[in-house]
Structure formats: structure tokens, C-alpha cells
């Protein structure tokens, strides 16, 4: 008899629990994030959370070239994922230092793979803190190559060419704004 009463109680709890779950789901729908049908992670619309790396870069007037390159290389969905990532983000002025026509050439669909390789050379997995950088430190990048940190006057310089001019936190990592584009070693 006790077993039958216990079983009936569990069944009733499950029935009422399931009914309430639908009500709870309906009530929280208004607070969930919207996603465009068929889109990737980058299509999730979320105006409440801290901005991810792509959202932060997209709002920066100094990173329009970088954002255009990330889009042309189809890397937006990768960079909005949870990560965490450390992104060394060249400014528009950094891209302007490249030989004339380089950026336009890289943005062509035929050069998508080369562009992706260059952009992935600017990304490390994990959150790297500048306080932990050491002279001669070698850091693996997403494209499979390494960058090297050189400390000059207590400040890190990447590959001997790029200075970190700002640090910007993001929901899925950190962005280090740099003053030169990092070019991966030729293969």
C-alpha cells in the first residue's frame, strides 16, 4: 500500500511538474535571446549581456577594416563562440601600413583562405594577461604558428613589430588593440 501511494505521488508530481514546466518556459520566452533561422552563433540577438569580441570590434570606428576582414574570411561565427580568446586586433591605421592594395586584394573571395590564415594568426585560445607576458615568451596561435613576446621598457611587443595600445575586455575573452598587422611566417 505504501509503495502504491508513493508511486501515485511521484506520478502526480511529474504530471503537475510537466504542466508547470510549460508555463515556466512560456513565461521566460520573453527574456530569451532571439536567433535568426538557419544562422550561426553570430545571429543570436542579445542586447543584455556583455558584448563578445566581434560585437566590441564592430562598434569601434578604429576597427572597420578588421571587421570587414573577419566577415570576408567567414570567421564571425568562430569569434562569437564562448572561447575564451585573446585577439590581437590591428587598427585601421595598422592595416594602412601594409603595401598599397594589400587589404583590397586580401578581401577578394579568391584569397579567403590566405586572409583567414592571417586573421587566425591574431588569435590565441584562452585569456592571456599582459602582466604574465615575459620576454621571449612564445604563444601558439589558432592558425598553428607562434608569436613571440619581447618586453621593452616593461611593455610587451609582439613579434618585434606590434605594440599593445589598449586592452578591451569582452564576454568571450580579451582584445588587445595593436598598432601593426601580424603576418604569419611564410610556409
TrEMBL record:
InterPro entries membership: Adhesion/Biosynth-related, FAS1_dom_sf, FAS1_domain
Keywords in alphabetical order: Signal
Top-level taxon in the UniProt lineage: Bacteria
Signal peptide: 1-21
CC per GO annotation: extracellular space
Gene3D superfamilies: FAS1 domain
SUPFAM superfamilies (alphabetical): FAS1 domain (SSF82153)
Region of interest (Disordered), residue spans: 29-49
Domain FAS1: from-to ranges: 50-182
Signal recorded as keyword: yes
Protein's UniProt name: Fasciclin
Organism name: Pelobium manganitolerans
